[in-house]
Description:
It is a single chain. The chain is of the alpha+beta class and 78 residues long. The chain is globular. It is built from three helices and four strands.
Amino acid sequence: MWSLLIAAQLLALPSEATQAAFPAITAEVQSGSLIFSQGDCLAVKVFSCSPYTHVGMVIIENGQPVVYDAMNGPGVRK
């Protein structure tokens, strides 16, 4: 679980370190894994009392991890 939180933090700031860590992270996820991210939505932070403002769910499709999330307007996206 902690690896997913670390993954969200790494993915928020793309860098060479992120690219290097990506294979190890993808090897650990499974269908149903949640990825949390920290954004700048003050309303979510205040209402939820959490530093995390967004969540996505990993689904394994054809052996590859795919992240689904939901946005206002477009709805669920892949």
